[in-house]
């Protein structure tokens, strides 16, 4: 009882200080304690399942050797991660929620208010490229690479599409603008009175499904069938689907050259892990090598995201401590490497190897998590490809020229090493208003369908019942903003918002509010979006037995655990492309701007809105 009272006093104090002052304005150790307190609050009040009944799977994967393969290996669809609820987190299960269901009913009457196309054109559209100067373009490629692993709503339904009316001077070629609806989950009767639900068509675990697929057919397609390896072409790139021209990998929708880079790099890494496992365990089968290499590769990607990408985009001293604490614990990486885990506590010794914990709610990604990861302003509209020998421009391409099948074509021309160097020495865009990529507002898919992604993203949040910005703030325990001037300190933006939202601050869409809000020092996105991150960044580790109770040498092998422990994004890059060493030598974080080759050309091409930099 006393422990509960103390915890309640602690969390109430944390919430009071956070709402009145702000966690990031406190001294470092106090701000770190406040983040722990906020996570406790969010774990108790912001996890909700949309599933009805226990998730029990019936199709057990085939046995491997002396026992069931699924006990010690990830399955293709993510089933049997939880042995008591085998379907939990598997492909085809529902998205959860971070707010109570009563707040997630879509408001059909306000679906087109204000017009989402107006929001796209007048608040989101990029006027001039606003760079995020603490990051490089690999950071933009990385997060989409991760998102392909985490979630997808699948193909949209063709029946009864949204019809968005357009102004007379709108250059869009069709009237009205037609946007297909998200495919709703139809597995339970709609007479229950609950809000609509949607299904994640990919595995919800952090399991590398963007490389390996979320079904047996895709997994068979990407595997070579020899020594546990994935397919790689003779030119060192991924093989290409002859019908689409797009790289063959676990997930290859919404494709661009940044995804080609990341997918090729970590396919090479998987195969390197297989080589080391083969040397250590020469009698192992193709399946044995594949299963273990997948475990190691997926965990290494999770580690890179936790201790490198996140501190790069949230470049704040407290966050550096917090994210390293998530992986290594506050006992630090050095203590972990010397003595291993010194405590069962995730706070002291990190989440990997701790006890599995779902916090009383079946694991799933959430619709709100999808919403706060709408980070398309990171993408530029043009990319300059430079040679790492002299920094000279080899090619200048619009984004339309490096998407879909063009991505592989351009990558084959410029080479992996030069493309990685070009990404490492170019800025992504800042996640803010008036910086949404122009090419995504007039994007044509391979099937010829044209769409405005900015308009679609605004409509998606409304359609899926994600609360609007002010209500969302309240539900994640932040004070509501009372005026447009409180939302943003940019006076021009405040007037634009007031006009478009008819002077009603409560009607501001979530994505618009997140982009307008001034973030904490060093942050690449808003403090409001960060609340979902505080909760879900650790949850996707805590709930996964392969990061907790089965993060052991018995399952991974000691070689596998050592590989994860001793490698990072820089070592992955240098293992496969050692010629990048001069540009990473003095860089603390590989997602921050790299050093450049001897300068021999223009540092800024303002006509292309593509910024590069020099030391």
Outline the structure in words:
The structure is a single chain. With 615 residues, the chain is mostly helical. It has 2 domains: 1-45; 50-467 and 529-584, Haem peroxidase domain superfamily, animal type (Myeloperoxidase, subunit C). The protein is built from 24 helices and 10 strands. Strands 1-2 form a two-stranded antiparallel sheet. It has a two-stranded antiparallel sheet with strand order 3-4. It starts with a helix and ends with a strand.
Give the percentage of residues in beta strands: 5-15%
- What is the CATH topology descriptor of the largest domain? Myeloperoxidase, subunit C
Measured on Cα atoms, how large is the radius of gyration? Answer: 24 Å
Sheet with the most strands, sense and barrel status = 2 strands, antiparallel
CATH homologous superfamily identity of the largest domain:
Haem peroxidase domain superfamily, animal type
Low-confidence stretches: 602-615
Distance between the termini: 58 Å
Count of all domains = 2
DSSP strand count: 10
Shape: globular
- Helical fraction equals 40-55%
In round numbers, the mean pLDDT is: 93
Tell me the layout of helices and strands.
Elements: H1 2-20, H2 28-45, E1 63-64, E2 67-68, H3 116-124, H4 137-150, E3 157-164, E4 177-181, H5 209-212, H6 216-222, H7 257-280, H8 286-313, H9 317-328, H10 332-339, H11 346-349, H12 367-372, E5 382-386, E6 393-398, H13 405-414, H14 416-424, E7 443-444, E8 450-451, H15 453-463, H16 469-475, H17 484-487, H18 491-500, H19 510-516, H20 527-542, H21 553-556, H22 558-566, H23 569-576, H24 581-584, E9 604-605, E10 610-611
Helix pairs in contact: 1-2, 2-9, 2-20, 3-15, 3-18, 4-7, 4-8, 7-8, 7-13, 7-23, 8-9, 8-22
């Amino acid at each position: 009882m006393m422990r509960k009272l103390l915890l309640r006093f602690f969390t109430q104090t944390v919430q009071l200080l956070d709402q009145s002052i702000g966690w990031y304005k406190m001294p470092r150790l106090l701000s770190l304690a406040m983040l722990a307190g906020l996570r406790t609050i969010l774990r108790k009040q912001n996890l909700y399942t949309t599933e009805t009944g226990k998730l029990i799977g019936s199709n057990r994967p085939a046995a491997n050797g002396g026992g069931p393969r699924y006990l010690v290996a990830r399955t293709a669809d993510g089933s049997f991660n939880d042995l008591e609820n085998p379907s939990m987190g598997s492909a085809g299960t529902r998205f959860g929620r971070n707010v109570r269901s009563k707040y997630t009913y879509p408001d059909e009457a306000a679906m087109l208010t204000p017009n989402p196309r107006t929001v796209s054109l007048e608040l989101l559209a990029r006027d001039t490229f606003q760079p995020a100067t603490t990051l490089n373009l690999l950071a933009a490629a990385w997060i989409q690479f991760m998102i392909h692993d985490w979630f997808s709503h699948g193909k949209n339904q063709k029946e009864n599409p949204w019809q968005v009316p357009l102004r007379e001077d709108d250059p869009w070629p069709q009237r009205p603008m037609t946007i297909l609806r998200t495919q709703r989950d139809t597995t339970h009767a709609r007479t229950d009175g609950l809000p609509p639900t949607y299904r994640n068509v990919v595995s919800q675990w952090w399991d590398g499904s963007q490389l390996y697929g979320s079904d047996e057919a895709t997994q068979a397609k990407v595997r070579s069938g020899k020594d546990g390896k994935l397919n790689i072409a003779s030119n060192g790139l991924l093989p290409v689907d002859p019908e689409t021209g797009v790289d063959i990998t676990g997930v290859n929708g919404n494709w661009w050259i940044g995804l080609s880079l990341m997918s090729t790099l970590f396919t090479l890494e998987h195969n390197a892990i297989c080589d080391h496992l083969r040397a250590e365990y020469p009698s192992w089968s193709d399946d044995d090598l594949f299963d273990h290499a997948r475990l190691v590769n997926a965990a290494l990607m999770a580690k890179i995201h936790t201790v490198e990408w996140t501190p790069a985009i949230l470049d704040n001293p407290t966050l550096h401590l917090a994210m390293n604490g998530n992986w290594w614990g506050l006992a630090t990486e050095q203590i972990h490497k010397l003595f291993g885990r010194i405590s069962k506590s995730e706070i002291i010794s990190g989440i990997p190897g701790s006890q599995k914990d779902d916090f009383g709610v079946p694991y799933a990604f959430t619709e709100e998590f999808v919403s706060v990861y709408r980070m398309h302003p990171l993408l530029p509209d043009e990319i300059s490809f430079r040679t790492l020998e002299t920094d000279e421009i080899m090619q200048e391409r619009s984004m339309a020229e490096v998407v879909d099948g063009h991505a592989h074509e351009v990558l084959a021309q410029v080479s992996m090493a030069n493309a990685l160097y070009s990404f490492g020495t170019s800025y992504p865009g800042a996640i803010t208003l008036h910086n949404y990529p122009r090419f995504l507002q007039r994007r044509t898919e391979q099937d010829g369908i044209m769409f405005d992604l900015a308009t679609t993203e605004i409509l998606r949040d409304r359609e899926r019942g994600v609360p609007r910005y002010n209500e969302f703030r309240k539900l994640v325990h932040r004070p509501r903003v009372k005026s447009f001037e409180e939302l943003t300190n940019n006076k021009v933006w405040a007037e634009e918002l007031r006009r478009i939202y008819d002077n009603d601050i409560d009607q501001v869409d979530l994505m618009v509010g997140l982009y307008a809000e001034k973030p904490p020092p060093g942050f690449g996105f808003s403090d409001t979006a960060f609340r979902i991150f505080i909760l879900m960044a650790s949850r996707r580790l805590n709930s996964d037995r392969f990061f907790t109770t089965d993060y052991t040498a018995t399952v991974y092998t000691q070689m596998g655990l050592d590989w994860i422990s001793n490698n990072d994004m820089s070592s992955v890059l240098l293992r496969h492309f050692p010629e990048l060493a001069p540009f990473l030598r003095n860089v603390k974080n590989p997602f921050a701007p790299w050093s450049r080759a001897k300068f021999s050309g223009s540092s800024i091409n303002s006509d292309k809105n593509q910024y590069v930099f020099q030391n």
